[in-house]
Amino acid sequence: LAQAEAIAKESEVPEYERFSVRKVVDGKMPLFAIWDDLYDDYYETNHAVPQFSNEKQAESYLENLKKEVADREAAEWLKVEHAKF
Predict the structure, then answer these.
(1) Is 51 among the domain residues?
(2) What 8-state DSSP symbol labels residue 37?
């Protein structure tokens, strides 16, 4: 059983992450943006790509974005489920 658990742990597929922080401009004044893997492009809001001057700001924005998207998707799922009845 221990061997099976070890094999299962080693072969685990990492959890899919739709969004990630990426550096878009390097150098003295780096800029970071949020990559949206679903659309294979940078995340846009109001037809603009939010950019951040440091990675910590981008990570903070990303955490809020993940929560917002999860809440919106849950609400949409619930609406579809209610429409079935």
Answers:
(1) yes
(2) T
Residue 7 lies in a domain: no
DSSP track, 39-85 = TTEE--BTTB---BSSHHHHHHHHHHHHHHHHHHHHHHHHHHHHHT-
Range of the domain at 68: 15-83
Average pLDDT over residues 11-37: 90
Is 4 inside any structural domain?
A: no
Indicate the pLDDT class of residue 3, thresholds 50, 70 and 90: confident
43 falls within a domain = yes
Q: Is the pLDDT of residue 14 over 80?
A: no
